[in-house]
Amino acid sequence: MVLAAVALLVACDKVPLFAPTGTTIRLYTNAQVLPIHGTAEITASVLESGGNPVQNGTMVTFTTTLGTVTPAEVATSNSKATVIFNAGSQSGTAVINAFSGPSSTSGSASTGTGAATTTGSGVSIVIGAAAATTVVVTASPSSVSQLGGTATITASVLDSNNNGLAGVPVSFTTDQGSLAPVIGTTNSTGQATTTLTTTQTSTVTVTAGTKTGTVKVTAVAVPTITLTGPATTPTAGLTSTFTLNVTPGSGSAPIRNVYLDFGDDTNVSLGAASGSVSIPHVYRESGEFRVMAIATDASGQSTSMSIPVVVFPAVPFALTVTAPTGKSGVAMTLTATPGAGAPVIVSYVWDFGDGKSATTTIGSAPHTYTLPAGTTVAQQFIVTVTATGADGRTGVGSAFVTITP
Fold first, then answer.
1. Fewest CB within a 10 Å sphere: which of 107, 131, 272, 352?
2. Cα–Cα distances in angstroms (integers) from residue 112 to residues 28, 124, 245, 292, 314, in the given order
3. Which tens digits make up the pLDDT trace of 51-68?
4. Which domains occur in the chain, in start order?
């Protein structure tokens, strides 16, 4: 008899324990909104009729219409049973209920984060895009050049309290241009971004669940600019003239600055120039250069044009030397005169032909020729002058000078 009683008790311990008739089950959740794959804690309060706690170990089973509950069945401790709800990858509203024996929560769910207000009620949790009530879309910058540009599109997915929703899938579409990426997921602050590339005014639409938002990016007309080189091939040391024609874009801001780079490490800013403008320039060296002009308007839009330029080497200039007939031992003045088109002369080097020389910064030089003692006939000397211009070009001239005893 004793052994039979013990066996009966052991068998009873293995039978699952369920709540008796009249038990009330209420569910609590610590979150009413979750991102995709988010988790929340679900707690069941299990009380017998009259508010008495159920026996520890009473089994409670949880169900959900979306996502999963882990574990699906759990034993009570101090009339509580707690599980973890995982939202999964699908947006929507999960309705979570629980039952034990003949007692269960009702299908009507509480959406609060505290205790359910209906006796025996379940809870509901809104997942992902289903919680979105507003999609706010912005563009930075809000305008691009009609020659082509990019703008960062930011979508903010908000709930009914204007809080950002994390983990919400969003899609991006545009009526002009292209987007990359076209699918995104909101970050921890509820934002997702993409990049628009376009040459035309574009409207970008962002969709999160059943909600959409749009933003427009305007294509702004840019200035037009033409650059024309010198009519004749430039020569080092001589002035070459470039011509610019600048026009603001249709309906756009006025010109703010025109910049011209001559390709030889020199440049000039012309300010708010417009229409036809002539710009002189002197190349100091020969070679191939690329000249670039950039016009920028007050809105920051710009356009540019460049042309190649070949500069010929500098050519010598003419130099005329004048030397009067002189007398031995008597000072005389010699002169050197640059020809037409010569640069500003920075130095004259004089070779008087008698073994003596001098350097001046002006086109004249005094000199005294001395014939050997006993000379009875006139002698001639060749005077050679080399002049150097400010642009590096040189001119050479010479003349005979006759010296009498």
1. 107
2. 8, 8, 69, 67, 89
3. 899 999 999 999 999 999
4. 15-130 (2.60.40.10), 134-220 (2.60.40.10), 224-311 (2.60.40.10), 319-404 (2.60.40.10)
